[in-house]
Amino acid sequence: MIDAVLAGLHPPQLFHVGVVAADIDVAMREMSASLGLAWKGGKAKVMDLCLYGQERKVEMRIAHSRQGPPHVEVIQAVPDSPWALPPATGVHHLCYWSEDSAAICARLEAAGNRRVLGKPSAPSGYFLSPSGMYVEIIDKDLHDSIAGWLARDS
């Protein structure tokens, strides 16, 4: 079902592949050594988020590879959240951007995907399919902001 909903998105719109790690520092070191990736971000930041329909403050550590797109995003595991450590490591989510992200989000919800991050009708968010796949949708402004940040040297 998720394939039909995302049909308007194209491979160049795949912005990053997300990985949840038990230890973000170890994961970044391993991927640097094995894949030659350089990183931006990774410092702890408390974020105001809407998770499962509830407002929460969550300390997050997120890093993005400078190489890309698609970039690799590594997230420090957060218990009782969409970023809880999965039973097996690997890809956690795919992030797409769209100039009409609000319509993509609405189609995901209408197709039975549960919004687990973001307020109802927001133009960005995480969605969990009935089969357990996470998809993140971001709008063009957020895409451009992250892409610009990743392109800066500092």
TrEMBL record:
Lineage top rank: taxon: Bacteria
Species of the source: Sphingomonas immobilis
Gene3D superfamilies: 2,3-Dihydroxybiphenyl 1,2-Dioxygenase, domain 1 (3.10.180.10)
Taxonomic placement: Bacteria, Pseudomonadati, Pseudomonadota, Alphaproteobacteria, Sphingomonadales
The protein, known as: VOC family protein
Entry-linked InterPro entries: Glyas_Bleomycin-R_OHBP_Dase (IPR029068)
